[in-house]
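Students often ask why inverse folding is considered easier than folding. One informal answer: many sequences map to the same fold, so there is more than one right answer. In these notes we will look at a single instance of the problem. The structure comes first.
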């Protein structure tokens, strides 16, 4: 048996590496029977669950102008960037698909700002779920889903291992984490939102010198540290069978990148973890997983709570 479930973590543009991970797993004969994702991982997971192969996803990404992903928010929403560009790209893959039409089970996470709860989205329109899980606070606007006010699932669950276990209790969980081990954090590039804003370079330089801008930078870098620490804590608690860490530390969250580069990094990460993956597909592992009774890590959204606005 080579059936597995996969939990894809957040990481902005680094999430393209997930495509390489999925491709390499397929090439090794593993059958992905369930997939979950948070933030960028939620986007890739949603597209994959729609039935697109990693090759097809790479081909479409290579033809897309990445500068259109991130456009300035010109409305009154509390965000720097608009979700319109990202939604336009996603519509190429997802369209009006709903969860019940997906090729494999999929779920993603978001966080309700009002109740401070993790929200599990596994029904309704896939597009709405993808945009909700990717609504990075302050950068993208929150998504309205019924009475929920949703932001990026990575706020509470950076790599949704428990969600993957709930979705497919008898399968081993392969977690894909886009942040490195803690001992490598000192070499990470700082999180710089302004570098990806579609404004003239000289204007960005002037804005970056403002006291308010520097204050925001300190805050966002601090939040990045908290996020990485939370990731490690959740991985220790949720204990996926295997953790794959593509070496994408050199890339910023909103950088303009060549998709092929990140995809190849994802493929290489699988090769480096093949032994660990295969060792978790033993008969004994399957036996003990049969006695699991996992519960959803957050509040599942019922059909009565649909009707997204953004």
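Output (designed amino acids):
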């Amino acid at each position: 048996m080579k059936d597995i479930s996969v939990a894809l973590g957040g990481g902005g543009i680094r999430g393209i590496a997930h495509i390489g991970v999925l491709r390499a797993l397929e090439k090794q004969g593993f059958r992905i029977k369930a997939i979950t994702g948070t933030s960028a991982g939620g986007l890739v997971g949603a597209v994959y669950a729609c039935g697109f192969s990693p090759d097809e996803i790479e081909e479409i990404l290579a033809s897309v102008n990445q500068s259109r992903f991130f456009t300035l928010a010109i409305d009154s929403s509390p965000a720097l960037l608009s979700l319109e560009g990202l939604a336009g790209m996603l519509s190429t893959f997802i369209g009006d698909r709903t969860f019940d039409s997906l090729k494999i089970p999929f779920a993603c996470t978001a966080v309700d700002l009002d109740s401070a709860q993790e929200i599990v989205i596994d029904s309704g329109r896939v597009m709405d779920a993808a945009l909700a899980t990717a609504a990075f606070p302050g950068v993208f606007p929150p998504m309205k889903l019924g009475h929920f006010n949703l932001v990026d699932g990575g706020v509470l669950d950076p790599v949704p291992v428990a969600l993957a276990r709930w979705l497919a209790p008898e399968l081993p969980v392969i977690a894909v984490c886009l942040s490195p081990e803690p001992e490598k954090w000192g070499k990470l590039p700082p999180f710089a939102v302004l570098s990806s804003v579609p404004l003239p370079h000289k204007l960005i330089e002037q804005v970056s010198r403002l006291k308010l801008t520097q204050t925001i930078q300190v805050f966002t870098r601090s939040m990045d540290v908290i996020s990485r620490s939370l990731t490690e804590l959740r991985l220790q608690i949720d204990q996926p069978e295997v953790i794959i860490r593509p070496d994408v530390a050199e890339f910023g969250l909103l950088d303009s990148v060549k998709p092929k580069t990140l995809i190849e990094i994802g493929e290489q990460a699988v090769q480096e973890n093949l032994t660990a993956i295969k060792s978790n597909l033993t008969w004994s592992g399957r036996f003990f997983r049969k006695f699991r009774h996992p519960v959803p890590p957050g509040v599942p959204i019922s059909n009565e709570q649909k009707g997204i606005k953004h």
